[in-house]
Design a protein that fits this description.
Helix content: under 10%
Order of helices and strands: EEEEEEEEE
Structural class: mainly beta
Strand order of the largest sheet: 1-2-3-5-6
Distance between the termini: 24 Å
Radius of gyration: 15 Å
Shape: globular
Length: about 140
């Protein structure tokens, strides 16, 4: 849910509109989720990225730890870009929780929630975000 409304991948720009990857051998375990949607016929998309480093087990990772995890959201229709790593211009809080990390079965699952705020742009509040992906 993004600001109380369902937000799911939608449309296609020639690349997958939903991609989750995990590399256990890079930087102590690297997680990356990238998704986008075209909410209307304007041709302008919304893009969401979640990432985490040093992730080797299930657990909760805070987006306030800028060295190990982050979130970014871009809305090309409004021109607003938010990035948790930009602590000068963007306020961010939230968590990424890995609920299942099974390298033998090649499955990663989890949930996330976060808030992003930036002067001149609407506050973005994501609740009940989730993913379940075969790697």
């Amino acid at each position: 849910m993004l600001n109380g409304k369902a937000w799911t991948p939608k449309g296609n720009n020639g690349t997958s509109n939903y991609d989750v990857s995990f590399d256990p051998t890079f930087d102590g375990g690297t997680f990356d989720l990238r998704t986008y949607r075209y909410p209307d016929k304007s041709g302008k998309n919304q893009y969401l990225i979640l990432y985490a480093f040093h992730l080797s087990t299930s657990g909760t990772y805070s987006f306030s730890n800028k060295r190990s995890s982050g979130v970014s959201y871009t809305d090309h229709k409004t021109g607003c870009e938010y990035a948790s790593r930009d602590s000068i211009n963007t306020y961010s809080s939230g968590t990424l929780t890995i609920t299942k990390l099974d390298l033998n079965q090649r499955i990663i699952s989890g949930k996330f929630e976060f808030t992003l705020a930036k002067p001149g742009c609407d506050t973005i509040k994501v609740t009940d975000g989730r993913f379940d992906k075969k790697l």
